[in-house]
Amino acid sequence: MFEDDEYSTLIALPLICAIVFGLATASFLYTSYYAEFLIGSPSSTSCLALMVMPFLVIIGVVAGVVIGIILAFVFLLCGQLTIDGNKLIRLSLIFVIGFSLLTGIAGFLVTKNNVEFNKPRIIYSNESIAKKDVNSEPVVSDTTTVFSEQRDKGRSLVWNDLRIMLRFTEDTICAVDKGHNFVIQTLLDEKFHYIRQLQAMEIRLSPNEKKYLAVIAELRATSHHTMLLIYSPSGSLIYHEMFNNFGREIIIGINKLNSQTEALIIKNKDEIFSYSKR
């Protein structure tokens, strides 16, 4: 028989672990969710996450029970059949409060990192492209558009007299020649594996070189993101930028700087940017 202030190890540990893991999971998930509303721009599908969270908390509880049972058997093998009630309460409070605080802070930091990651920014530049604000509207040029349903097969376009097939997968933008050799190939960060369509056009940024290739990658509509990628005549990525578009179509065009040189013009709502060779 157990003393009045002692509890069975086989019952107490799984119960404590279930509570700790359940509350820790809830703390992480709900802190992440509401932090996104406070410091970020939540996706239109974020409400779906709120519906899934209770099920994830249940998984956390089940995981806690399993871990608690394993710990209980370890205690039993060591001859610890019971746990003192006062010690049990103290340990329970420490673990519940401690783990909930830690996972809540972790949830906030993860969300903060994601918000920073998703801000409009220049992802990569080899410093050869100069970007500046302009007032001139772009002269809309012919572009080749690859829609989502064409992603695997791609669409044909001519770049510097070479016919290529521009296509994309979940995580890669690429173009191949007739011999299926890669002309361009860019692996996107895992957080941007949801390209919706591509627009591409060639542009003469330098009078002494062949034409460059500008590609606009529109991401999933609910992400509110669009990317600009500029490739050198050799197929190297020299510039990569991310915009926020919030459902607005980004217009791509050119402005002639002189008889031999052009500037790429991007219009995003009221903002107009010019991209030229330094």
Please give a structural write-up.
With 278 residues, this protein is of the alpha+beta class. The protein has two domains: 6-117, no CATH class; 121-277, no CATH class. Helix content is 35%, strand content 35%. The strands form four sheets. A six-stranded antiparallel β-sheet has the order 3-14-13-12-11-6, with no helix packed on it. Strands 4-17-16-15-5 form a five-stranded antiparallel β-sheet, with no helix packed on it. Helix 1 packs antiparallel against helix 2 (46-77). The N and C termini lie far apart (85 Å).
What would the keywords be for this entry?
278 residues; 2 domains; alpha+beta
Distance between the termini: 85 Å
List SSEs in N-to-C order.
EHHEHEEEEEEEEEEEEEEE
Q: Which geometry do the CA atoms define?
A: elongated
Overall strand count: 17
User: Fraction of residues in helices?
Assistant: 25-40%
Mean pLDDT across all residues, rounded?
Answer: 85
Beta strand %: 25-35%
What is the topological layout?
Blueprint: E1 6-8, H1 9-39, H2 46-77, E2 82-84, H3 85-117, E3 121-125, E4 129-133, E5 139-140, E6 144-146, E7 155-159, E8 162-168, E9 172-176, E10 182-187, E11 195-203, E12 212-219, E13 225-231, E14 237-244, E15 251-256, E16 262-268, E17 271-277
Antiparallel strand pairs: 1-2, 3-14, 4-17, 5-15, 6-11, 7-8, 8-9, 9-10, 11-12, 12-13, 13-14, 15-16, 16-17
